[in-house]
C-alpha cells in the first residue's frame, strides 16, 4: 500500500506499476526534501526539469533554480541531479522531462 501525501497523488494520476510506487516510497523516506517531495505530486510543473544523460546513468538538472538545490552538483557547464527520488523517476518513469 502507498503512503498518504504526494506519493498517493502520483499513484492516483499516473499509470505506475506497484513495484515503482513501493521503490519511490522507500527512496522518499530516506531522501530529505525542502520541496516536500513535490516531484511526486500530480502537478507536472512541480517536477524538477531533468533528463537522463546520454550514458543512461547520469541525470542532468535542467531547472533554472537548479543551483539552489541541495542535490545539484556542478559538472562541466551544467548540473547533475543526485536526488534519489528524481533519479528514479528519470530512469524508470520518464525518458525526458523538459
Would you give an account of this structure?
With 98 residues, the protein is an alpha+beta fold. It has one domain. It contains three helices and five strands; from the N terminus they run ααββββαβ. It has a five-stranded antiparallel sheet, covered by helices on one side. Strand 1 and strand 2 form a beta hairpin. Helix 2 packs antiparallel against helix 3. The chain is globular and about 35 Å long. The protein starts with 5 loop residues before the first helix and ends with a strand. The N terminus is likely disordered.
A few lines on this structure:
The chain is α+β, with helices and mostly antiparallel strands and 98 residues long.
- How many helix segments? 3
Described by the principal axes of the CA atoms, the overall outline is: globular
Q: Which structural class should the secondary elements be placed in?
A: alpha+beta
> The biggest beta sheet, please?
5 strands, antiparallel
Helix content class: 25-40%
The rounded Rg comes to: 13 Å
Report the β-strand fraction as a percent range.
15-25%
The first-to-last residue Cα distance is 30 Å
The succession of helices and strands, N to C, reads: HHEEEEHE
- Compute the number of strand runs: 5
What keywords describe this structure?
5 strands, alpha+beta, 3 helices, five-stranded antiparallel beta sheet, disordered N terminus, 98 residues
Amino acid at each position: 500500500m502507498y503512503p498518504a501525501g504526494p506519493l498517493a497523488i502520483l499513484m492516483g494520476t499516473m499509470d505506475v506499476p506497484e513495484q515503482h510506487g513501493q521503490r519511490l516510497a522507500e527512496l522518499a523516506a530516506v531522501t530529505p526534501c525542502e520541496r516536500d517531495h513535490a516531484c511526486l505530486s500530480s502537478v507536472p510543473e512541480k517536477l524538477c526539469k531533468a533528463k537522463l544523460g546520454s550514458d543512461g546513468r547520469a541525470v542532468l538538472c535542467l531547472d533554472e533554480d537548479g543551483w539552489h538545490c541541495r542535490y545539484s552538483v556542478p559538472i562541466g557547464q551544467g548540473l547533475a541531479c543526485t536526488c534519489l527520488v528524481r533519479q528514479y523517476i528519470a530512469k524508470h518513469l520518464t525518458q525526458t522531462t523538459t
